[in-house]
Each structure stands twice: as C-alpha cells, then as structure tokens.
C-alpha cells in the first residue's frame, strides 16, 4: 500500500524537506569538487586526482540512490565506468575525455536539481551524453555540453538558492547592524553631553565611569557583528577555474587559473558586487593578454598561459590582484587609440601610469576585431565604475611581453568606515581615512573664491578643489583654510576646507531617493551631535580636480604651509 502526498504528516514533510536540503548542498559540493579536480587533471594528470573524482561520483550515486533518485544514479554509474577505465590505464585522460567528463558534471548538476524539483528521468540530451560516456568516444567529442531541453523543469542554481538563504540571514544581520549603528550614535551623543557636563563643573564621575566601562563591551559587540557578515573569497575564486578553461578553449588558447589567499574575507555585499567586475577582468585577460600556444612557443613561453588570482588584507582593506603572463599592454597601440578618440592631445607626453589609466575610459579598446569576449570598448570602464561604487579603487601595471597585473583595493565592509571629517561652513564632509595622505594649511595668497587651483607640495603640483564653491555653500571664505591631501590611483589632489575635525568610525547610510546622483556625494553618516555628514565621492572629485588643472593655465603654484598645532586635526 502506497502513501499519497495527502497522507504525509506535516512533521514528516518537514523532515523530508530537511533531507532534500542536505542532499542539495552535498550534491553541489561534490559536483563542484569533481569539476575542480577535472580541470587540475587536464593540466597535470595524476592517479590521486582520478581517485578523488571517482570517489566523489560514487558518493553522489549513493546519496541519490538512498533518496530514490534513479536518473542521477543511472547517469553517475556511466560516469564511474569512464573514470574507472581512466584509472585502470585503459584510456588516457586527454583533453577530449576531460571535456567529456566536464560535460557530464554539467549534466549531473542539472539532474540533481531536476530530481529535487520532482523530475526523476533522463531526458534525450542526458541519454545522448550517457551513450558517449559508455562508448568512451576517442574523437569528435564536443567541447561544450549539449544544450538542455527547454521543457525540462530545473531547480534554481544551488548557489543562487544558498545565496537566497544567505540574503535572508543578511536581512537579520542588517537589522543588527542598524541597531548597532543607532547605539553608536547614542553613545557618541551621551559621551559628548557628559564631557560637557564634566567640563562645566558638574559631578558626573559615576556616569562617566559607567560610560567608559560600556565602551569595550560595545566595541566587542560591534566587531563580532561585523565578523558575521564576512565570508572567504575562495568560493568566488574557484567558480572561475572552469570559466577560464572554457573561455580559453573558445579562443583556441590554453590557460589555467592559480589561486592564492582564498581564506581572505570580505563583507558579503562587497563579495557579491565583485562578481561581475572580476569576470570582466578575466575575459579581458584571456582575450587581450594571453597569446595563442604558437605565439607563446615563439616567445619562449609555456604554451599554456597562467593567470593568478590573489587576495590579501592590507591596512584595513582587501586587495585582489589578477595577473597574467601574457603579452602585456602595448603602449603604442594605447597612444594610437587615444589620438584617434581625441582623449588627449599629446599622449606621448603622458607618464606611463597616466597612459595605462586610459584603458579605463569609456569606449576605449586597442583591438580592431570584435569578438565574443571584447573589442566593443565596454568592460574596463564598467569595472572601474563598479569598483568605485564600492568605495574601492583599481590600478594597473604592465610590462610588454611579460604580462599585466590589475589591483583592486576594496573596503572590508560597506556598513562602517574609518572616516576623516572636515567642516565647511555649517556642513561636515567625510572621506575614508585611508585616502588621506596629509593635511596642510592653504597659503594666504591662495585664499580666494575660485573653485579650483594648483598648489605646490614639496616641489610637485597639487591640483585642489575648494569644497565651498564645489557645493555652492555661499558663505564667506574664512580667514584660515586647510587642504586635505587625498591619494588615489588616478592622482593626488587637495580639498580646501574650513576646519579639520579628525577621524573616527562612521556608519554609512545610503542617500535618499531625492539626493541620489548628486555629483561628488556617495553617502551619508550620522555625526556624534546628531547632524548628518556627507560622504564624498573621492574618485569623482579626484578626476574633477585633475581636469580643472589641465584645462586652466595657472601661475606658479604657491608652496603649502604646515598647519599650526591649534589647527591640527583632533579626535572627534
């Protein structure tokens, strides 16, 4: 006697869903591990890798059989047969058979999701590929898995399902972060009030001591909450092992991706936003950087190109480097493209770093042939835009004939920054402290009402913007002005402000709908006195200052003065 769906108790159904969730996670992990090992096997055949792949297939078959998923069980059995023939030495693990097995991995992934959706049968596409597996075909195997039948219901990707669950958890965490932010504001306001009361002669010693005792507890809570949001970059990096292999083959090239620093952690929101820029960079490296096997042999290189993804923590940020050992960026082609597009009048006068930064300009491409990967002049400018939207930066180094390295510097989190506050009139502006190089006093002769100008910093020209004019604040220029020197991959500039208010931890809030898109502003924060401070869009202001300096002839810049102790930055 069989039991219909209506006869299953709610408790049993809930337990069954838990079992299916365990299988979904286990199947995705096993298939991903098989995929990574197959890519490694193609580069360096080893019995150990074959044994690991066979073990993963056998485990998946057993898990599927225990749940009655016959389609996955039957298909995996055919995969095992081919793997066993390779392990026994009856067949060689060449590129053709690795491609066949990678196609099988795609089918296993799809069949597992289909089984979870209630479709437990082999479609015509799966059966055709299973025939190829069982025959152990030697030649003529397609390099890509055949397309899936349109009528086959499919579960959403396990990674997407996992990310959906993660987003639900992140919503809870976001509420905790918001609460923590409010506590931070309240703590700052309470500390300011109590300090003023103490200075006025009131006896608030007990209250102040209680406040001081609360500080380390609060900071520990905030640190633990932020750690919950942090995830390692390894899973994102490993997703691109297959991407690099397949994209290289589509260009008749050979390439492998090496990974370093997979344990480095980033905020989940930053990691999600990094996916598209990273894919753009990998595609660009494979198309523009890595040469064909014949070209590499002629240059005395290994026919297989090498790309390296590396992540590490540095000074409160995470640095992601993508390097290749390809042809590098050909400067003359960059100059020709710059002339053709009218980006600069005399590109031969540009410094090397300035010349290389031109590749991030919209529509810039040194190739004349449009391919599936590049050639349309889109991609690198999108990378810069997306990275700067994360309050990060991108820089590039390249040596012709040796390769190129792109460096992405990203904040650990988008929720909180260590920010430097500056006052202009009754407004307060904040920049990330890692962008601040130094603070100096504006020379008396440069205290004008002009929006921009050029100062001299240790003999070097320093373009600067006067925030009072940039944001049309309208109040009178003060008797003394300071300039905050900001460093950025695009250049070093100064911001002329009225006062320096020092650094401190700032909780970032998004701008309201009415204020989004304001040039030079990227966010807001609540200050210790309850007022709203505005987070400056550093990259946009850097480029604006450099553009003003290049367009306007200036007299010899006046040297900057070191600020007096009374005007030096102090802690908020």
In the sheet with the most strands, the strands line up as 10-13-14-12-11-18
Total count of helical runs of at least 4 residues: 15
Tell me roughly what share of residues is in helical segments. 40-55%
Strand-residue proportion: 15-25%
**Would you identify the regions where 5 or more consecutive residues have pLDDT less than 50?**
1-6, 137-165, 563-572
Q: List how many beta strands DSSP finds.
A: 18
Q: Which whole number gives the mean pLDDT?
A: 79
Distance between the termini: 75 Å
Overall spatial form: flat
Task: Look at the helices and sheets and give the structural class.
Answer: alpha+beta
Rg of Cα set:
29 Å
Query: Main β-sheet, in a few words?
Result: 6 strands, mixed
What does this structure look like?
Helices cover 46% and strands 21% of the residues. With 572 residues, it is α+β, with helices and mostly antiparallel strands. A six-stranded mixed sheet has the order 10-13-14-12-11-18. A five-stranded mixed sheet has the order 2-4-5-7-6. It has a five-stranded mixed β-barrel with strand order 8-9-17-16-15. The longest helix has 42 residues. The N terminus and C terminus are likely disordered.
